[in-house]
Design a protein that fits this description.
152 residues, alpha+beta, Aminopeptidase, seven-stranded mixed β-sheet, 4 helices, globular, [Ribosomal protein bS18]-alanine N-acetyltransferase, transferase, Bact_Acetyltransf, AcTrfase_RimI/Ard1
Length: 152
């Protein structure tokens, strides 16, 4: 772990190759997103932020927004920086964006990802349901979770 400065800022289109590499490292048993998938998300107006350690992308998070709800599309942090608060900072940035619009937030998370589940529970999410074999090709199950709109 580096002791440099982490900055949360809008994800840039030129970050797509690095995002795809991080996806391949973190999610090899499932269908990692491609560069094109990240570019498409950015081009289609989804809200994405990156975590930059001394200018190097070490994590990213994305939020889809409709008139009725927000949906966490992804949160990822490179293995060497997990557990340092980067994921929490990314999630809080997404939630702040959803709160600006007064939208409830929904997400899916692997049932075996206790760290992420605990993070979401600590930020007001509740279990809503179970999607069997949601992640492919691994066939891992996912919990659906939701957080009510913060209308403060």
């Amino acid at each position: 772990m580096s002791t440099g400065t982490v900055t949360i800022a809008p994800l840039r289109r030129e970050d797509a190759p690095r995002c795809a590499r991080i996806e391949q490292d973190l999610f090899p048993g499932d269908d990692p997103w491609s560069e094109g998938a990240f570019r498409s998300e950015l081009d289609n107006g989804a809200f994405y932020v990156g975590a930059y350690l001394d200018g190097v992308l070490i994590g990213y998070a994305g939020l889809g927004l409709t008139d009725f709800e927000a949906s966490v599309h992804t949160i990822a942090v490179v293995a060497g920086q997990q557990g340092t608060g980067v994921g929490k900072a990314l999630l809080r940035t997404l939630l702040a964006k959803a709160d600006e619009t007064g939208l409830p937030v929904f997400l899916e998370v692997r049932t075996d990802n206790a760290t992420a589940i605990n993070l979401y529970l600590a930020h007001g999410f509740e279990h809503l349901g179970l999607r069997r074999r949601y992640y492919q090709p691994s066939g891992a199950d996912a919990y659906t979770m939701g957080r009510p709109a913060n209308r403060d």
